[in-house]
Amino acid sequence: MENIVIGSGPAGRLASLELGKLKENVTLIEKNHIAGTCLNEGCMVICALTDITKFIDLSNKFNNYGFIKSQLDISYEKIVEKIVETQKMLREINQMENESVGNNIIYGEARIEGSEVIVNNESLSYDNLLVATGARPFIPDIKGSEYGLTNKDILKLDKIPENLNIIGGGIIACEIANIYSTLGSNVNVIARSKFLKEIGDNARRYILEKIIPNVTIYENTSIKEAFKNKVLTEDGKELEGTPFFATGRTPNSEIAEGIVELNADRTIKVTEMMKTSAENIYAAGDVTGGYQLTPVARMEGITAARNMAGYSNKVSYECIPQTLSLNMEASFVENKKTECSDDDKATIGIPGIAGPGSFWNILAGETGYTEVEFDKKNNKINRINSISPSSTSDVAYLSYLMRMDYDLDDYAEFLEIHPSTDSNYKIIKNMWL
């Protein structure tokens, strides 16, 4: 069986690797760089820059406490240089990993013609095809939008912007605001509706007051026109600063247009087995819409690969954990299928616990905040919002317990490692059970 995968982001790369492990013949086609948006333009770039801002934030605290006296000299140009150097190393590792299971990797722009894929003027036949072409930044249709930056431009900047107008109110907007406000930019965030509506109000308030206090937020505000160094809002505000669009993403589905069925938002329509409307054509990752998260794209890619290899597999989107990469991570998960009534809900919230990464935040009252919503009747967890240095791993394992439908009594024997910044165990074991 000949399997062709178009796109080497998290979905396509993991699908190819899975197919190779299953001893299937695989050709992986990549237009630009292996590992896709995540490594080259997205979350890995955000994480690299956030590592820098965490250090700056901690250095500022130590200076304020008086036991370290230092002055930081930040070179954005050097930061970018070292990120690019690291990306090259990771690309080599990702390529070797795929080639180690016998996969063939071709670099070039592909197009689909019937039962063949054309790349570099060569026709390749397939028995199964996976479209994993990802998505690109969505640019709103406003006058002057060509002046706006996106995540694709972060590594093209030669210096830290003095003033920055971030247009958008979601996770990416918040992460960009955290980075550049810590690096010294004057940052505005212009949100069309509520800022950070994905998370609970108390966690949102903590982020605004403790993590990004120097960022000015404009909610329920739309942009009328963008200029090179300012934006004009619909209500007449003129805000100085480079425009930066964090307004969502649009699928790279043009390659499959007229071949498979698309949804109204132009994402590729798929089943829970990642099958499209066309026989033997699958799709996975951001091009299918839904949760545009690297772990979800990986899960979808592996699901598609197993079905392509003849092993029936379905994907599940229950209790998906998410996080904001900030100077202190804010993670959350929700069971959207809960049938819990308001009368059966109980919510407990407490400040974060001092531990690794958080001890020196006590003096500033910035140890974090965790909130857990319970289903009292069924003894389950409904929702978690957790802000702490360990929240990414804490919420990930708790999301698994939620997904597996564990009873909270099963948590009673959990033994934590001390010291820890995980407030979840304290709430669940000491305050609820």
Question: What's a quick, concise take on this entry?
Answer:
This protein has helices at residues 10-21, 36-40, 43-65, 76-99, 171-183, 201-211, 294-308, 391-403, 423-432; strands at 2-6, 25-30, 104-107, 110-113, 116-119, 122-125, 128-131, 135-137, 163-167, 186-190, 216-218, 223-226, 230-233, 238-240, 242-245, 249-251, 281-283, 322-324, 330-334, 345-351, 369-375, 380-387.
What is the element layout, followed by pairings?
Layout: E1 2-6, H1 10-21, E2 25-30, H2 36-40, H3 43-65, H4 76-99, E3 104-107, E4 110-113, E5 116-119, E6 122-125, E7 128-131, E8 135-137, E9 163-167, H5 171-183, E10 186-190, H6 201-211, E11 216-218, E12 223-226, E13 230-233, E14 238-240, E15 242-245, E16 249-251, E17 281-283, H7 294-308, E18 322-324, E19 330-334, E20 345-351, E21 369-375, E22 380-387, H8 391-403, H9 423-432
Parallel strand pairs: 1-2, 1-7, 2-3, 7-17, 9-10, 9-15, 10-11
Antiparallel strand pairs: 4-5, 5-6, 8-16, 12-13, 13-14, 18-19, 19-22, 20-21, 21-22
What does the model show?
With 433 residues, this protein is α/β, with parallel strands linked by helices. It folds into three domains: 2-137 and 249-308, 3-Layer(bba) Sandwich (FAD/NAD(P)-binding domain); 145-245, FAD/NAD(P)-binding domain (3-Layer(bba) Sandwich); 322-432, FAD/NAD-linked reductase, C-terminal dimerisation domain (Enolase-like, domain 1), CATH 3.30.390.30. It is 29% helix and 23% strand. The protein contains nine helices and 22 strands. It has helices spanning 10-21, 36-40, 43-65, 76-99, 171-183, 201-211, 294-308, 391-403, 423-432; strands at 2-6, 25-30, 104-107, 110-113, 116-119, 122-125, 128-131, 135-137, 163-167, 186-190, 216-218, 223-226, 230-233, 238-240, 242-245, 249-251, 281-283, 322-324, 330-334, 345-351, 369-375, 380-387. It has a five-stranded parallel beta sheet with strand order 3-2-1-7-17, with helices on one face. It has a five-stranded antiparallel beta sheet with strand order 18-19-22-21-20, sandwiched between helices. Strand 10, helix 6 and strand 11 form a beta-alpha-beta unit. It is globular. It starts with a strand and ends with a helix.
